Amino acid sequence: MDVDNRGDNEIITSFKTGNHQDFDILIERYSTKLYQIAFGMLSNQQDAEEVVQDAFVRAFRALDKFRGDAKFSTWIHRIVSNLARNRYHWNRRRGAKLNVSLYQPKRSHDDTDDEHEMLIPDNSMGPGVMLEGAELEQEVMSEFNRLPEKLKQAMLLRHVSEFSYEKIAQTLECKVGTVKSRIARGREIMRNKFNAAKNYEKR
Q1: Which class for 192: exposed (0-12), middle (13-18), buried (19 or more C-beta within 10 A)?
Q2: In a domain, 59, yes or no
Q3: Are residues 121 and 199 in the same domain?
Q4: Within this chain, do residues 123 and 85 fall inside the same structural domain, yes or no?
Q5: pLDDT tens-digit profile of 37-46?
Q6: Are residues 4 and 94 in the same domain?
Q7: Is 20 helix (H, G, I), strand (E, B) or coil?
Q8: What's the pLDDT tens digit per position in 118-174?
Q9: Sign of the torsion formed by the C-alpha atoms of 186, 85, 197 and 111
Q10: SS3 of 100, please?
Q11: Overall domain count for the chain
Q12: pTM of the model as a whole
């Protein structure tokens, strides 16, 4: 299949003229990243897939009225984030057991802070290390799930989706400084939790 090199705006313009099949290009272009966001918030494959499908259905129905005040990518990510948040709360009301995964982000060329500090160790060593890593990963997910939702959502967009601070701010409809503060606060909470755990184990 040939890669369509048109920009999102060109595809949307084509869609608005009646070429609705072009929406499939947007689905192919964004489905993986959207799934990562939804799964990161819900840690459930079926829920994440349903959220992404629902997001694309809503986007398809609303695309004729899309004015382009924000980028399509920002708009669709915001839809997924909102739907995943709603599903998260619905699951909690039902008493579902929820875990949130943290993924190791790729180091980009413009990183200047310590946000890529690994909380989860490399599990590619021996069985003993792998077992310890699995146990620690479970602890990380458990503690991450206890973070305030605003901190958790900002960290997911940064570490799972690898969004820039500016794009996170657009998606969450807040200031860049607020995004940085939430991410820094989330890391601080996680770091303090595990430092306290390590100190306790040394006693």
Answers
A1: exposed
A2: yes
A3: yes
A4: no
A5: 888 778 788 9
A6: yes
A7: helix
A8: 343 334 434 444 344 455 556 666 777 778 888 888 888 887 667 889 988 888 888
A9: negative
A10: coil
A11: 2
A12: 0.58
